[in-house]
Amino acid sequence: MALGASRASLIWLILQNALRLLAFGLLAGILTAIAASRWIAAMLFGLTATDPSTICIAAIVLLAAGLLASYPPARHASRIDPMSSLRCE
C-alpha cells in the first residue's frame, strides 16, 4: 500500500498466494488418495475408492475452508497503516 496498491489489490494478492498453496495441496492430496486407493477401499462402505463426486466435494469443501481461513489475515493486512509498516522495516 505504501507503493500505491489499493486495499482490494492487496487482499487479492494475499488470496492469490493462498489459492496457489491450496491448489498445490489439493493436487498432492488427490494424487495421494488415488495412489492409496487400494488401502482406502477396505475402509469405505457404499463408495468406490476413486469416486469422482466424493473427491470433488471434498476438494471444494477444503478449498472453501482455506479461502475462508485466509481472508481475515488478508483483510487485517489491508488495514495496516503503510507508514507504520515502513517504520518497522
Report the strand count: 0
Percentage beta strand: under 5%
The span between the termini is 14 Å
Largest sheet: none
Number of discrete helical segments:
4
Arithmetic mean of pLDDT: 85
Shape: rod-shaped
Quaternary structure type: single chain
Low-confidence stretches: none
Structural class: mainly alpha
Radius of gyration: 19 Å
Overall tally of structural domains: 1
3D structure, described in words:
The protein has one domain. Helix 1 packs antiparallel against helix 3. The chain starts with 6 loop residues before the first helix and ends with a helix. The chain is mainly alpha-helical and 89 residues long. The protein has four helices and no strands. The chain is 76% helix and 0% strand.
Can you give me a brief rundown of this structure?
This protein has 89 residues and is mainly alpha-helical. The protein contains 4 helices and no strands. It has one domain.
